[in-house]
Amino acid sequence: MKSFRLLACLAIGVLLPVSGDAQQSRPLSPRGEAATQVGGAYNGQGQYEGGSWIVVTYGRPLLRGRDLFGSGDAYGQAFLRGAPNWRIGADQSTRFMTEVDLTFGGQRLPAGEYSIFAELSEGEWTLIFADWGVKDDFREDKPGALWGSYGYTPENDVLRTTMEVTTGGVAADQLVIVFTDMTSTGGQFTVWWDDQVGSTAFQVAR
Predict the structure, then answer these.
(1) Which domain holds residue 162?
(2) Quick one: pLDDT at residue 30?
(3) CA-closest candidate to residue 133, choices 142, 141, 145, 143
(4) Predicted structure pTM score
(5) Mind spelling out the 3-state secondary structure of the chain?
(6) Which positions of the chain have pLDDT values less than 70?
(7) How far apart are CA 38 and CA 169, in angstroms?
């Protein structure tokens, strides 16, 4: 995949000393955000105007030496822990917000905020956008909302699309969600963890 080199660069970080208190308070899966803007343009003064935001918020688990994906019928089952599909992250359900209508695989996703999930199989994932709300704690009693993907059922699905999955030569220790190969009208929504890279194309709806 031509964007894999970019993904490898994103995984390189600067190591800084961390105090003992900070280490104790740091969550095992730190929160992360991926963001992009589409539909805008630079004016004559070099200022970007008219763009619409797409933002993903998610928990970023680490491999910590585990072999998670596996192969065959067991592919991806090691980290589901009884959930019906993957929350594409850790802890709270992963959230996808778009200020503009998008299309995935010819299907229209209205502007709004969604929980996203993935059904996993070797070589291809199914990306799911759903109207489930999100719980802030797994013990929270909040009708119509989920903790991760536990309790997921498909009646709130808004859109399903396939993600092409490739095996890269470099393994990401921490889950990465990123927008790749972007233009003003769309690009690729990409998920990278371990040596598995799933990606699906999207466009600003017309």
Answers:
(1) 28-204
(2) 94
(3) 145
(4) 0.86
(5) CCCHHHHHHHCCCCCCCCCHHHHHHCCCCCEEEEEEEECCEECCCCCEECCEEEEEEEECCECCCCCCCCCHHHCCHHHCCCCCCECCCCCCCCEEEECCCEEECCEEECCEEEEEEEEEECCEEEEEEECCEECCCCCCCCCCEEECCECCCHHHEEEEEEEEEEEEEEEEEEEEEEEEEEECCEEEEEEEEEEEEEEEEEEECC
(6) 1-24
(7) 30
Question: At a CB cut-off of 8 Å and minimum separation 6, what does 149 contact?
Answer: 83, 84, 85, 86, 87, 93, 117
CA–CA distance, 84 with 146 (Å, rounded to integer): 12
**Cβ atoms 114, 103 nearer than 8 A:** no
Who's near 125: CB < 8 A, 6+ residues apart? 118, 119, 162, 163, 165, 191, 198
Tokens of residue 125, six digits: 């994932």
The total number of structural domains that make up the chain: 1
Inter-CA distances, 26 with 18, 19, 97, 140, 181, Å: 10, 11, 26, 22, 32
* Pair of tokens at residue 187: 């690009």
Tell me, yes or no, whether 22 lies in a domain: no
Examine residue 114 and state whether it is found in any structural domain, yes or no: yes
Provide the residue type at 49 as one letter: E
Residue 10, domain member (yes or no): no
In a domain, 21, yes or no: no
Per-residue confidence (pLDDT) for residue 168, from 0 to 100: 87
